[in-house]
Design brief:
Blueprint: E1 11-14, E2 22-26, E3 41-46, E4 52-56, E5 60-62, H1 63-73, H2 77-95, E6 160-162, E7 165-167, E8 201-204, E9 210-213, E10 231-234, H3 238-249, E11 254-257, H4 265-276, E12 280-281, H5 285-291, E13 294-297, H6 302-310, H7 315-318, E14 324-327, H8 333-345, E15 349-352, E16 355-356, H9 359-364, E17 367-373, H10 375-380, H11 382-388, E18 389-394, H12 400-428, H13 433-440, H14 448-459, H15 468-484, H16 490-504, H17 517-520
Parallel strand pairs: 10-11, 10-13, 11-12, 13-14, 14-15, 17-18
Antiparallel strand pairs: 1-2, 1-5, 2-3, 3-4, 6-7, 8-9, 9-18, 15-17, 16-17
Organism: Umbra pygmaea (Eastern mudminnow)
Subcellular location: Chromosome; Nucleus
Pfam families: NAD_binding_11, NAD_binding_2, PWWP
Length: about 525
């Protein structure tokens, strides 16, 4: 095929690794940024994500001649939003008489004088991938820039053919001179309680744990490139629903199943909402696993987790060599060990990945994921974890994540019970509960958790964000784990009794903050 000559301002399709071609625009690099040696490449800004990268010419195709072909093979929601951004850009350009008003890499935006920061160029073996913020850059589409980040994408390693056009294989890791990186946009203000931008950071510690951090994982950011693996998800409860929603928003191919759909008609409608967003529906857990490369599950307790795997038409029946199963339910380490053994006995690959957070954090894509088990599965789940959470940690062998999760929830449950006790004691001694909260939120214990839970209590709002029955289950499992380790847990045991009283008062399906009612009845 004849060589395509590209110029600054040309719209293109850029190929990044094994991911689908993405629409972008050839722009001028910042003045102090040197072109990679020995490589004929262009500096490209990608639509939708507002990220940049040096891309080899053989990985670039003109936008308009290949638009229809690319749209046919890529159906993801994020991809469509990127294409829509291109069309918006073209319309604005036409209104401006065909002039391109962008000023990429010039150190300052029109009408503004911003100091420029030196840009950090990442090598493939860089360990520190923290976000860089360059306030000098201007948005390509002339719209308000979304918060973005510096992230490392996979190498341009997978050759492929799209409608007769071959994308050449050229692994980045084999080329120490080929810098592959993304530059951030200027940021919008954010509250002090939440991260501003998404970033990817992998940290190896002496303990052997690994953390992949991706802050502000809300789908609006759009800086995640979804894996091409087929994803399955079992369980659409408070946590699962938000997780699936963010997976879909980020362009993942997801097949869903909910364990109560056969008994509860509204659960079928719940599945339908995700189908309207692009999800597929599996009839049984076994069918979902057989259709997908990686299947996640998120259910209520150890019994539900076991039944899902070992029951009729369960996960185990769909497991084949190479299939990945990720258990996200908060269960005891013994259950994890059992599930890991049965999955791997069939040639499957197992990872546990319980999540710390709430329904709101799940909806916002700001969960904390604790993973353990097969390290390669953890790496394969990278884009999924970035979509659903702000941080993920790899903790080693299967069972470690369950232990850590139970300890965290034990602390949270005990703390919530203590806060409720303080609020009721304030009332009993003639003190203002609101003043107690105001003082608390000005001290060392100030947090979004304390503020939201206490405000909900004072308003009588116990809509579940994390079920009371589930935090009591976690306390019970943590106490049992302490018994096994011959370690005392008297604070957790006391809190557990208060939650049990709240359950007896019919508070099981309310938020954990409804433990307050155990003190006033």
């Amino acid at each position: 095929m004849a060589t395509v000559h590209l110029r600054i301002g040309d719209l293109v399709w850029g190929k990044l690794g094994r991911y689908p071609p993405w629409p972008g625009k050839v722009v001028s690099p910042p003045k102090d940024l040197k072109k990679p040696r020995g490589k004929k490449c262009h500096f490209v800004k990608f639509f939708g994500t507002e990220d940049h990268a040096w891309i080899k010419v053989e990985q670039l195709k003109p936008y308009h001649p290949h638009k229809e072909e690319m749209i046919k093979i890529n159906k993801g929601k994020r991809f469509q939003q990127a294409v829509d951004a291109v069309e918006d850009f073209l319309k604005k350009k036409e209104k401006q008489g065909g002039k391109d008003q962008s000023s990429e890499g010039k150190g300052e935006s029109k009408g503004k004088k911003n100091p420029t920061k030196p840009l950090k160029i990442l090598e493939e073996d860089d360990e520190d991938l923290s976000a860089l913020k360059d306030p000098s850059e201007k948005d390509l589409t002339d719209s308000d820039p979304e918060p973005s980040s510096l992230e490392r994408l996979g190498g341009l390693g997978a050759a492929g053919t799209v409608s007769g056009f071959k994308w050449e294989s050229s692994p980045v890791q084999d080329d120490p001179h080929f810098h592959h990186f993304l530059l951030s946009q200027s940021e919008k203000p954010a509250s002090s309680m939440e991260p501003i931008s998404k970033r990817l950071k992998i940290v190896e510690e002496d303990t052997g744990s690994t953390s992949i951090q991706a802050a502000d994982s809300t789908a609006i950011n759009g800086s995640i490139i979804p894996t091409d693996k087929r994803i399955g998800f079992l369980g659409l409860g408070l946590m699962g629903s938000g997780i699936v929603s963010n997976l879909l928003k980020m362009g993942h191919i997801v097949t869903v199943w909910n364990r109560t759909a056969e008994k509860v008609p509204q659960d079928n409608q719940h599945c339908d909402l995700f189908i309207q967003e692009g999800a597929r529906l599996g009839r049984t857990p076994a069918e979902v696993v057989s259709m997908c490369d990686i299947t996640f599950s998120c259910v209520s307790d150890p019994k539900a987790a076991r039944d899902l795997v070992l029951g009729p038409s369960g996960v185990l029946q769909g497991i084949r060599p190479g299939k990945c199963y990720v258990e996200m339910s908060t269960v005891d380490p013994e259950t994890i060990t059992e599930l890991s053994q049965v999955i791997t006995s069939r040639g499957g690959r197992f990872l546990e990945a319980p999540v710390a957070g709430s329904q709101q954090l799940s909806n916002d894509g700001m969960l904390v994921i604790l993973a353990a088990g097969d390290r390669t599965v953890y790496e394969d789940c990278s884009s999924c974890f970035q979509a659903m959470g702000k941080t993920s940690f790899f903790l080693g062998e299967a069972g470690n994540a369950a232990r850590m999760m139970l300890i965290l929830n034990m602390v949270q449950g005990s703390f919530m019970a203590t806060i409720a006790e303080g609020l009721t004691l304030a009332q009993a001694t003639g003190q203002s509960q609101q003043t107690f909260l105001d003082i608390l939120c000005q001290g060392q214990m100030a947090s979004t958790f304390v503020d939201q839970k206490c405000q909900n209590i004072l308003q009588g709002n116990f809509k579940p964000d994390y079920y009371l029955k589930h935090i009591q289950k976690d306390l019970r499992l943590a106490i049992s784990m302490g018994d096994t380790a011959n370690h005392p847990t008297p604070m957790a045991a006391a809190a557990n009794e208060v939650y049990k009283r709240a359950k007896a008062l019919d508070q099981s399906d309310n938020d954990m903050s409804a433990v307050y009612r155990a003190y006033i009845h």
